[in-house]
Amino acid sequence: MQNTKSNKLWGGRFHKETSQLLEEFNASLPFDKRLYKQDILGSKIHAKMLHKCGILTNDEMQSICVGLEQIEQEIQEDRFIFTLSDEDIHMAIEKRLTQIIGEAGKKLHTARSRNDQVALDFRLFVLDCNKTLRSLCLNLIHTLLNIAQDHTKTILPGFTHLQHAQPINFGFLMCAYICMFVRDFERLESSFKRNNYCPLGAAALAGTPYNTDRFYTAKALGFIAPTLNAIDSVSDRDFALDFLYDCSLIAIHVSRLAEELVLWSSYEFKFITLSDAYSTGSSIMPQKKNPDIPELLRGKSGRVFGNLFALLAVMKGLPLAYNKDTQEDKEGVFDTFDTLEISLRILNDLLKTMEIHTNNMLQACKKGHLSATDLADFLVTNCDIPFREAHHITGEAVAYAESLGKDLSELSIEELCRINPKIPKQAHKALDLFASMEARNSYGGTSQQATLIQIQSLQAWLQTAKASMEY
């Protein structure tokens, strides 16, 4: 039986070519070619470090860097020929580099492994995505703050169990979503700092016998420092899981806001009208204007959660160090980033262009007896009535209003006092919807003053966050 040598860069001990089926099953090149910029940057810095440490000559280092720049241009101009047999972006670039500059290209892989190389490329990519999403969160927060500031006097029903509960202002409601996205930004910021360490130089799993300088490499690539332990460096994907978890929470918050937009844009609510530029119609019903963007935003959260669960399942049983299973780490992260990037962009544009119907919000407050709690509180505070009795009296008032086909807030003084002799005329002022909202002036409450304090605090936070991004 005649054996032939493998033509793989790693194929020295192999005597047969890999099967075509294995080529297709094993290759990550169709998706990890997206990491070409990170791979080329890491390779250039690695070459410079090898030269600094006397492992490469100046000519070799210069030749490698020039060759890598040519490869980057070829890829950007769509002239680079990707071949499935190269397996991944790392081997494809190294093979092409050797074709361009000859033997010097074969020296680039000195003192590193594909294990630490892919850990570096993927980590750089995730950190770049982290910055992009933080910037998009800030844009969204800015837009929501503008809406909040314009609507501190716009009354609408606050809901619990999706039932009318108490009157609040629309700015206060927007501040609630802003607080969610502030936490999202801070989570991304925290995970960025936690994972901003350089794995390059860990080699396969145990470090390298060459006299290298990992601190130089880390600093040149913008990291805080090199990772501490080589075997952890090549097997760690916590940075990707952190990112996917952070993204999952962003997706939850986007989905919750999207659900509100779907409800508010319906004829039953009619609190908002979405711009025609961000709506679609029906193929059969000409009167329809569908909130497809909020619905898609709501639906896309599922795929983001799925990507997190998938990587958790991949990592849960892996022994140290590197295992091929972790090749499954990238596609979910790529998909999650792409999904959230466009979601945050289009949500921001949709919010900027929607029309807010303040009168419809006010009219909705006149349904559901939103001032009932205020009447009970008034009786407790001003009439020395125990809360449970005040609660019962207020329930009688609600039933009486409904018998007249009115909202509690629409009862006259005479009608209110007719319900129970313990209700004084002064209690009528407790039924005013705006007064009800303004009464909730505690820190974090829905009064206009309390809402403006929240807005001012969030505006100050936003300026600090923008400054930290610029730094």
Give structural notes.
The protein has 471 residues and is mostly helical. It folds into 3 domains: 20-107, Orthogonal Bundle (Fumarase C, Chain B, domain 1), CATH 1.10.275.10; 126-150 and 170-209 and 222-357, Fumarase C, Chain A, domain 2 (Up-down Bundle), CATH 1.20.200; 372-431, Orthogonal Bundle (Ribonucleotide Reductase Protein R1, domain 1). 61% of the residues lie in helices and 4% in strands. It has 18 helices and 6 strands. The protein has helices spanning 20-26, 29-32, 36-52, 58-76, 89-101, 114-150, 170-195, 214-220, 230-235, 238-264, 292-315, 330-353, 358-365, 372-383, 387-403, 413-419, 433-439, 448-470, and strands at 155-160, 163-169, 197-198, 225-226, 272-273, 355-356. The chain has a two-stranded antiparallel ribbon with strand order 1-2. A hairpin with a 2-residue loop joins strand 1 and strand 2. Helix 7 (170-195) packs antiparallel against helix 10 (238-264). The longest helix is centred in the first third of the chain and has 37 residues, at 114-150. It is elongated. InterPro entries: Arg_succ_lyase_C, Argininosuccinate_lyase, Fumarase/histidase_N, Fumarate_lyase_CS, Fumarate_lyase_fam, Fumarate_lyase_N, L-Aspartase-like. It catalyses: 2-(N(omega)-L-arginino)succinate = fumarate + L-arginine. Residues 370-437 form the Argininosuccinate lyase C-terminal domain. Keywords: Amino-acid biosynthesis, Arginine biosynthesis, Cytoplasm, Lyase. One of its GO terms (molecular function) is argininosuccinate lyase activity.
